[in-house]
Design a protein that fits this description.
The chain has one domain: Orthogonal Bundle (Helix Hairpins), CATH 1.10.287.1080. 68% of the residues lie in helices and 0% in strands. The model has no long low-confidence stretch (mean pLDDT 93). It is mostly helical and 115 residues long. The N and C termini lie far apart (59 Å). It is built from 5 helices and no strands.
Length: 115
């Protein structure tokens, strides 16, 4: 028996597919007027700060074990998702290819910091 809510196989997890899902989610809620570069980068900063907050008072050893606690691990993964979501939306609005930007930055760093 097939699930009536099943829309077929899931879309592969890649950046363009995730950016489409984020854009569709925002469009369905009429959020595009709020998704300006300024607002998205501010939201990105807030979410990154929420990730920092989890680690703020941990020792280096405690921070290395943060994923051992299921509740804390869940908080970390949620904040990572929020940071990535806002970064991808920011890139989409400005037409930045995040993978190409990262690749170019690694190339520059390899030249700046030779082995």
């Amino acid at each position: 028996m097939t699930d009536p809510h099943d829309d077929g196989p899931p879309e592969p997890l890649d950046l363009p597919a995730l950016q489409r899902r984020l854009a569709e989610f925002a469009a369905a809620r009429h959020w595009q007027p709020y998704h300006t570069p300024k607002n998205l980068v501010a939201a990105l900063s807030v979410e990154a700060s929420e990730l920092v907050e989890i680690f703020q008072w941990l020792t280096p050893e405690e921070s290395a074990r943060v994923m051992d606690d299921p509740d804390t691990a869940h908080r970390v993964t949620d904040e990572v998702a929020d940071v990535l979501a806002y970064l991808l939306q920011f890139c989409e609005v400005l037409g930045v290819d995040p993978l190409a930007a990262l690749n170019a930055k690694i190339d520059r760093n390899e030249h700046r910091f030779p082995v």
